[in-house]
Amino acid sequence: MATFLYKLGRLAFRRRRYVALLWVVALAGAIFASSAAPSPPEDSFSMPGTESQKAFDRLEKNFPDASADGASARVVIRAPKGEKLTEGQPKSEVDRLVDSIGKGPQVSSVDDPYAAKSISKDGTTAYASVTYKVPATELTDEARDALTKSTDTTRDAGFTVETGGDAVMAEQEMGGSAELIGIAISAVVLIITFGSMVAAGMPLLTAIIGVGIGISGIAALGSVLDLSATTSTLAMMIGLAVGIDYALFIVSRYRAEIAEGREPEEAAGRATGTAGSAVVFAGLTVVVALSGLSIVNIPILTKMGLAAAATVVIAVLIALTMIPALLGFAGRKVLRRKDRKKSASELLDPNAKPKLGTRWARFVLRHPLSVLLVAVLGLGAVAVPAASLELGLPDEGTSAPDTTQRKAYDMLSESFGAGFNGPLMVTVSKDSDVAGAAKTVGDSLAKVDGVAAVTPAQANKAGDTAILNVIPKTGPSDHETEELVKSIRSTADGIGADTGSEILVTGQTAMTIDFSQTLDDALLPYLGLVVGLAFLLLMLVFRSVLVPLKAALGFLLSVAAALGAVVAVFQWGWLADIVGVDQPGPIMSMMPIFMIGVVFGLAMDYEVFLVTRMREAYVHGARPGESVVTGFTHGGRVVAAAAIIMISVFSGFIMENDDMIKMMGFGLAIAVLFDAFVVRMAIVPAVLALLGKSAWWLPRWLDKALPNVDVEGEKLHKNLGDTGTPDAETDRELAPVGR
Q1: Is the pLDDT of residue 374 over 60?
Q2: In CATH, what is the architecture of 355-416+522-739?
């Protein structure tokens, strides 16, 4: 592979104008295709194979009047102090409000609080359930404005009116501030790292082009492949981060080759052949991790993972072709201005002060056990809160206290009970006399522990399906509610057999529970798939059993610590004000599996780039300790810069208003921090120092069975007639003698 990429890098260097033009044309074509393509479909959420999805599909088919997929709103009204809604002017105002809402655009139905008996026992509070003909994503501004105008009129009359539900939930706009912040910080880090505006600009330029092609491609194929607008969210986040990192790796290696006296074309070829090989395998681990999201069997996650994986592939291709082409235009301008006219002997001054990475590697080699214990115990302590992890999906009870959704949630809890914020929808299906069967089902469910009330059943026109709502005594995110759903489902078969009907439980609360359970069930298979495939890839890269094992175990430790930090901040409320958490609550169900997929891929980037440099020195004659110093001398600064860039990109999303995006940004940023600076920078060299030559052990039979992909460029150096590597010779003099 290294030889092929070496030739590819030299070809791109020589044909730089054609290569650069090709990528610019690809970007323009993708943008044109996306602008000419039909609008992408609206977001759709489904969970094939779950009971709640089965019930939902049945409602859509047999009960179209219920608008099962339509948006909903819940308007909560409270009378002025000392008055009741059951008499006089307050009752007239409630009637007027219900009538006004019912005349709004796209409204399917509005429940009369008096007919539905949705009035509190003291008569001071009532709520009206509003159902729309279309999903929340298809609601027009006119429909939302009409609802707001109706409630404002009642509020002006002296009533307290608050609204909840997805119909009134303001859409969270991604204004681009997160991306701009990440790019700005990345630019500063790159300038500090390289000391050259030209070198700093290359990773930014290629990353933007790569993300532009990826996002435009997703938009262009949206209507064909059913990719919604949110499919590109993960692709943008990951594509920007890895695009900068991969280009950074190759540019850094090119600068090192120039410093060793290579001509620019030769330096570009060698940089692409060596660092480019690491980029290919690092990209493969990210693609494996993201594509593996398909195992969860939730279509929206599958599409997001595959779209992000495609963007990573584009980032790899750009790094291998466009970066060498840009290096052809830049030549020696990638060096600091003061270094451009220096000779190789001046750039590689043996008397120069050792780099920070070199000094750190030597320190770890002298104290490997102490460093290992401190790092492992530190991450273990941070991971402790993860034992209290509670999964769920954000609901209105976790909204900011000053929002109308949270106020409506609290009013319902105070006046009716917490369960009214998360009613369970039960469907009863029977070929005939479904109304009688549904009444029997309702009477039976009313006796189940944890049920506060059961509404009268409502049958469809065909008489084969009925709906009834079960109100739990506890809130939608409470553990008791989850147990109630399980209890109802466990008794449903018996009740269904007695009545000759099929009983299914759905509704927002049940779907949330099923969603969390689906993710829980997929977590271990997903982890096994991703770690297993990545282990094989890393075994090919490093020709070792222990190095991939160490990489996987270190990753698991960093993810556990990151989950602990997420729990401490978002669930327990530690440092909530600093991060901007309005209301602590359960951790988003997707968080663990997303963190495993994304962070594993990114963590392997640093592992591959850093340890590949060590492996390269080792196979060229350096002792184990010397190879560790070589890796940090030439890769430590780059990996640190790449990690800071990644952290800055993810941290920018903490500033968004969307709680899920805020949590994702924080979790990924803290995970990269732990993995790059604790696991890769401390645990990896400490373990390699303790293992010595054993780190690179591979059974002879396995060595023969595995194909030699030559990531470290051993065959490349032989083909080029190198008798040894300058890195190994230089570091043999600088590194401490021993392991």
Answers
A1: yes
A2: Up-down Bundle (1.20)
